[in-house]
# Entry
Amino acid sequence: MQKTQKGFTLIELVVVIVLLGILGVTALGKFQNLSLQAINAANSGIASEMSAASSINYAAALVGVGTAIDISDTTTPANVACTVIGPQLFASGVFPTGYQIVDVGAPACTAGGNSFSCLIDNIAETGDTAATATVLCTGG
# Structure
């Protein structure tokens, strides 16, 4: 009567461990840069939200429905700075925590429908890509 061994040989176990190691190292490279991609996506999301809110505000001012925010050079002081108008465009009235908004050049609203750009950037991350929000002027 011959006794049969049950289980794996040492060679089989080593091969499986090596293959799992190779797969792990390959997958690790794919997941390392995800946090930066997530921050860039958040920057783009906030910029898109600000641009959409500006478009809705412009439509409300054009049609005269609801309460529109005056985004023009005619107010004193001029209400065209991104840091001034940006938070007002959000429903909460506050710019999202952890992000900064920066003017691109010298914004001017000489006529309704003109636009200017604002940069949205994560304060904590220095390697991220700032996103651009377009703000429509309601008057001039």
